[in-house]
Amino acid sequence: MSQLQAETPSGHRVAPETARPSVGDAGWRPVLKLGLLGGAIALYLCLTGIVPIFNPRALIAGLISLGEVALLTTGLGVGYLAARRAPDGPRRALLGATIAGAVAGAFLTALVLLGAAVDLRGIALHASPATYEILTFGFGIPGSWIPIVALGLAAALGGAIQVLPPRLQRPVTTGLMALLVVGLFAGIIRTPMLASPLTDQLGRLLFASEGLTLVGAIVTVVVVLGGQWLNRRLAVRRRGRELPQAQRRRLTLPVALIGLLFVLWLPQGVGSFFAQVVAVVTLYVLMAFGLNITLGLAGLLDLGFVAFFAVGAYTVGLLTSTGEYGIAQWPFWAAVPVAVVLAMLFGAFLGLPILGIRGDYLAIATLGFGEIIRILAGSDLLKPWLGGPRGVTSIPKPIEVTPDSFLAGPLQIYYIALAAAVVVAFVAIRLRDSRLGRAWIAIREDEDVAEAMGVNLVQTKLLAYMLGAAFAGLGGAIFSTLLGAIISSSVNLFVSINVAAIIIVGGMGSIPGVVGGSIFLIGIPELFREFSEYRFLFYGVALIAMMIYRPEGIWPSRIARRELHTTDALEPGDPTAVPATEMGKA
Amino acid sequence: MQVRLADRLTDLAIAAFLWAFRLSVVAIVVVGSFLTLTSGKYNVDTWTGLVITGLATGSVYALVALGYTMVYGILRMINFAHGEVFMVGGFAGYFAAVGLSSLGVLNAGPLASLLSILVMMVVAGAFSTLIALLVERVAYRPLRNAPRLIPLISAIGASFFLQYSVKGWAGPGVYAYPDVGVLNELVPIDFVRIQWKQVLVVTAALVMMAGLYVFVMRTKIGTAIRAVSEDKATAALMGIDVNRAIVTTFAVGAAMAGAAGVLFALMFRQINFFSGFEPGLKAFTAAVLGGIGNVPGAMLGGLFLGQVEAVGPTLFLDGLGVPGASGLAKAIAFTMLVLILVFRPSGLLGERISGQRA
Amino acid sequence: MKLRKLGAIAAIGAIAFAGCTTGPAGFTPPADELGVITVGPNDPVHLAYWGVLSGGDASLGQDSLYGAQVAVDDKGGKILDHNINLTSEDAQCTVDGGAAAGAKLAADNTIVALIGSACSDETVGGIKAISDAGLTTVSPSATRPALTAPDRAADYAGFTRTAHSDAFQGQAVAEFVFNELKLTKAATIHDGSAYAEALQQVFADEFTALGGEIVIQEQVGKDTTDMTPVLTRVAGAGPEVVYFPIFVQAGGYIAAQAKDVPGLANAALIGSDGMFTPDFVEAAGPAAEGMYLSSPNFSAFQAGYADFLPKYEAKAGSAPLSAFHAHSYDAFNIIYAAIEKVAVKGSDGTLYIGKKALRDAIYATKDLQGLTGVLSCSASGDCGAPLIALYQITAREVGGEWPPEAPVWPTE
Predict the structure, then answer these.
(1) Chain A: residue nearest C90 by CA?
(2) Among candidates A406, A278, A190, which has minimal Cα distance to C3?
(3) What are the domain boundaries of chain C?
């Protein structure tokens, strides 16, 4: 600790404090620890290029850039936590926060000074003069103290939020969060606004070409806080819950109708890009329902789901394509059943040899199947039929329309995918509650006991495979018309991983969870395309954070929630249980 | 009664299909190999050459596979990010190599080269260990008692995070190790054509695996690791520090992966942020092939996979006249995997665990 | 496409609005059948780059993005007194990535023109949305012949490129091998990417037509590292020349390992523009010496390239990552020149850019001095100078100099 103090300019202020007897057990140690952690994070943000790359992109135009936001948020967070852990008393909490922020800032100062002395670009691409410029606001070495002050101030602000009374604390944090979220999505919100004469001027007023305008920032905060205040005053939810049963039931239909209309209107109302994104999200929802049978109900971890997706996509591609490799030029509607049946047969074909394989061996065997299919699809061996790496192209859209009809483009695919997802969801629910569904759950909980109870393991497992495969095939079939082409590079491992992750992140066995998971894991990265590779970095962080803080998923089924938040799990094998998260548990 | 009969028939059909599947794969392998070998297109030297490269690649797979298998053995979790730990080691080794090269010791004679390589491997192993322990602390430890798919997803997240952190840090370009001249020379023996780097990789891998075996079987902490793998609760009751055993497992696995990263780069020269993904997947496959959780199994699986990839496309497919056969190398490897799992559902050396789940 | 109509109405509405309130009397903004982009007096001119920025092919797209950024810097970041705002979208080198990126770009009515895509697959996925939106893209590195075929579909109306068509490149390599090296037995290796597969096929067809023999066509995985097995098989067929038009990583592995395979020690190795970078020479090491690479004729590259390189290196922090940064630089300049030509400026500084007019101006590019040569666009969108040259890697390049001094073919 003494060494650390020597390193930090503010260290001398720490020493006398630690000597005080009134300080709690841990003293200032947690504060320093947080400072060090913050420093490490700040260094990471600079050296992986997040700060320099996002510096040109404004959060609030002319005021603050995303790069600065990344650093200041770190300071804010450090300060907030430090104030909580610092010895009692608001003044000391504030002091602790400032110290922690300053310690974190000192790391950046050290980086700037070190970078000025030796060229660090050999070991880190972004340890460049451009980065130092950003950190010192262009002052170079004479300004190397700036990060300490900046992060110290940010941390002080964070600390101040922590010591505020809760009544004020919530609006401030909500306001800041809202600014961040709206600022990040600025481009995506602005684009459709500019496309309509009604909202064009408003769009320009609220959003700059990148990020929010100052007016937009103020409006955002006001609207969000106002909304929160209204919500609390009116207490919509609580009142809804207090309504008598009969009245609530009477409300269900209109709410559902409004929901349906919203879902139908959604992609049309917000622009053609959304139609594309929403169509892809819906396709993943569809496939996730399929995997939910194999994985969620029967507990068979299938990491080669993409194989069936490929079968569906190539079948429709070959049957409908008007291009080089098309063989029949059927209409889409005739090709889809064939694709689904073929995918199902394929499920049986691939499922049979590996039925005896259990647990994680199964995961890698299916992963192997997925890879085999991808490689074969792009291989010279099958090139005369599947087009090799150039794939099958010129796949027509299911509904022939004139180019300026509202159904042109991804929109019709969205509606088709939506309809298919609804059907599939219905089938999935009915299956879950059927005799077969119970047999699946029994297998998931304990194969041997299930067999002893008279469940035919081979047939039951095989059916799970085949049905999962059928849904994946349907997904693939629609996917190929969405793109108008199917190429082996689209058939990759990440499709399988994504679908599995959707189910788990959404909440195992939960139907709204599947939708939530798809939006979270497919939709949001799609919207952040402008952040190129960094979105995968954040995707990774999000997956980890999600698993740690919300292992039961975004929208868990009731049972899963109970299981994960009590120390004693339910007894396995309860046949009435809605699919729980425990599947595949050793 | 009728239902029973239908069930019987289905079961019979399924069994028939299974045998047809097994037999057809075996038939393709046998017929293909026979045709290739009798075509006389390739001589003995060609085959020994292929076997040697397969041995070298397989050794690297084996080293990485050890990390998968040990973590699996103790936590029953697939550490998806292990391939990235391997890649990170390759990068640390690169910077060490560049440093040594600029000091002029990397190519200052065979002994200096060997010592430099040792230094590179130690640096890489240490850095990989650091990263693996960080990942364990942040992404896995809070999930130790969660259902097993939860840490798997967290591991996939960690994998993405490490990959794209390195991409941000070092850019998407290729980093090529400085040449170590000695390694490219041929070993002066008559009957096989073998380079020093292949000798180095295989030897280093064997030494490390032997060391690991001794560590796991003979040392106190090794015994603790085995005990925790066997039964966590009982081990804890016996006074074993479970946490320490788990952390040690991660550290040992990561150190071997980091060192393997250096060996890999010495063999193939270049690395980039994505170069851990593929070897990681293969090593994972190797671990499963050998029987996941089983240390000698991982070694065997790695070596086997290396051979299948090196020899397989030529041996099995050349005689059948398949175009672009080498492009199918990975498909062959996975087919072999499935085939082995069909015959031995818990891998080559995996225990028969009919009662409990794998 | 009601939406697009709405967009057009919006644009007209905006113009009318702007015209009524701020425009001087008598000023009529241009009319355009595809719509007019209005750039407010203080707004930047929004250009976007789309191409692969993540995954294993990231260096290809990143390289072009740097090239375009240098080009923006060279213009002082300004066009007609407006700032240039160059954004980027990741298209992942896949059809689906291209489709998503294309849809996103098409929906953004502030975008004036595009640079991209990096991979041909991305164009296949995204071009329809882009063309339908009236936008025009100039690709620095999508080289698949079909993209600019004279009989291409109407969807491709918005696609032009400074990259050459691989039809030229495959033919040039075949002629070089047959006529200059006087070799008749060739083997090819591709990596399962559409680029490599198409290019080696063009080569194989042309080479056979010239009278040569293709002894084996092999394939490897994109992420294969151990090339000895495939090279052993290739060697078994007895080729005199091995052509592997793939990318830096796998190409580096092949080049580095080929000399160690008995039977290939004397075979000529040839790669293509996907590997024409110092990164490749670094990846392959000393084994690259003596190898041939086909590429745009850099000796035809203008003197500007020497000035360009240090700027690129300052931006990227490394030597060029791929071969198309100069094409990207040129793509930007084609767009720059076209915007200068067609943009109409109101007295308050508002820019009006007709989409059709801009597209026509891009297609009408003629004799524009670029880094890669003199650029003139054909009616089917080929803007690059299809001058392919073969370079030989010598000890000089292995020592770290770049680019090679003079091509070995064609010689003056």
Answers:
(1) A532
(2) A406
(3) 2-165+305-375, 166-300+388-398
